[in-house]
Amino acid sequence: MMSFFLIFTFLFLLRFPDVVFQGASTGITLWFQTVFPTLFPFFIMNALLLRTGTIYRFSHILSPAFGPLFGISGCSSYAVLCGFFCGTPVGAKVIADLVIENQISKKEGEYLLSFCNNTNPGFIVGFIFERCLGMPELAYVSLGILFTSSIICSFLFRSMYYPDLVIRDFSSDTLGRRPAPFTTGLDESIWESMETILRIGGYIIMFCVILFALKTLPIEQFVWNSIFLPFLELTNGVRMISAQTLDFTVKYILLMALASFCGICAAFQTKCIIHKAGFSFLQYIKEKLITAMVTSLLSLIFIFFYDKL
After folding, report:
1. Closest by alpha carbon to 209, among 257, 255, 265?
2. What percent of the chain has pLDDT over 90?
C-alpha cells in the first residue's frame, strides 16, 4: 500500500510540476519568513538555558504558581510557560530536552506534552482575529478560551492517563549539576537548533505541497474543504476557513478548533522533536483532538452568549 502511494505521488510530481512549485514556494516562504525567525532564536535560547543551568533559576520563580496548579515539578514550570506563550513546537522541544537530560521523568514529560504545546498567542491575536477574521475585539476572549481548554484538559488527562504520576524533588535536579561553559553551550545549542529548524522546514514544505495538490481535486464537500484540507496546515488552513462563506458560528468554531489542534503539519513537526524522548505520537494526537473538542464546546457556549449581547 505504501509503495503504491509513493509511486502515485512521484507520478503526480512529474505530471503537475506547477502545483508542486506553487506549494513548495508557499511552504518555503512561510518557513523562511515566519517560522525560522520566530522559532530559531527560542530554540537556541532554550537549549542554552538548559546547558548553562539557568533554566533552574528561572523555574524557581515560576514553580510556586505552576507547581500546585498542574501538579508538576519545579523544572517543568518553564516548559508550561514556553508551551503556552512561545507556540508549537517550542513547548515540545523544551519538554523533550528536559526528559533527555533526565531532569524530569518520561511520564511527567508525556503529561506536560498533553497540554503544553499550543499555538502562539501572537499568531492567534494578530493573524487569525485581526488579519484574517477582521474581528480584533474577539481576540483576547478567544485566547482565554484556548488557554482555559488546555488547563481543563490538563486536569482531565492527569486523571485519565497519568493518575500515578510521581513528581521528583526539584532540589535534587539542581544541586551538584555542573553547567557547561557559555561558549561551549552556545555552539552546541546553535548546531542542535539548526537541525531541528531544518526538519520543521521540511515538514512545512511537504505539507504545503500536499495541500496544494489536494486542492486541485474537484471535490465540493463541507468536510473536505472546511475541515480536512484546512486541518492539514495551520496558516493556510486559517486562510481557507476565513475566506469561505460560512455561518459565523461555524467559521468561529472551526478556527478555534484548528488553533487548538494546531494542524497535522504541526503534529508531525512535534513528532520529529519528541521521538528521542520516546513519547507516544498517537497518544499526543488523541490528546490534541480531545483538547480541540473541548475548545469547540467552549467556543459554542461563548458564541451563544455573544449573540445575545
Report:
1. 265
2. 65
Which residue in the block uniquely carries the three cell numbers 496548579? 69
Cβ-contact 79, 95 below 8 angstroms: yes
Letter for the amino acid at 27?
Answer: G
What are the two backbone dihedrals, phi and then psi, of residue 181, each rounded to the nearest 5 degrees? -60, 150
- Continuous segment of H or E residues that includes residue 158: helix 139-161
Q: Which residue has the cell 514553580?
A: 63
Q: Encode pLDDT of 75-89 as tens digits.
A: 899 999 999 999 899
Q: What is the pLDDT of residues 219-259, one digit of tens each?
A: 989 999 999 999 999 999 999 999 999 999 999 999 999 99
Query: DSSP code of 31?
Result: I
Q: Which residues contact 93 (CB under 8 A, 6 or more apart)?
A: 43, 46, 196, 273
Contact call for residues 225 and 64 (beta carbons, < 8 A) = no
Whose CA is closest to 294, among 256, 251, 246? 256
C-alpha distance across the termini of the chain, in Å: 54
0.70 exceeded by pTM: yes
Q: Which tens digit of pLDDT belongs to each residue from 10-27?
A: 787 787 889 989 999 999
254 close to 234: Cβ distance less than 8 angstroms: no
Sign of the CA dihedral running 71, 76, 77, 81:
negative
Record the cell numbers describing residue 95, joined without a space. Answer: 519538554
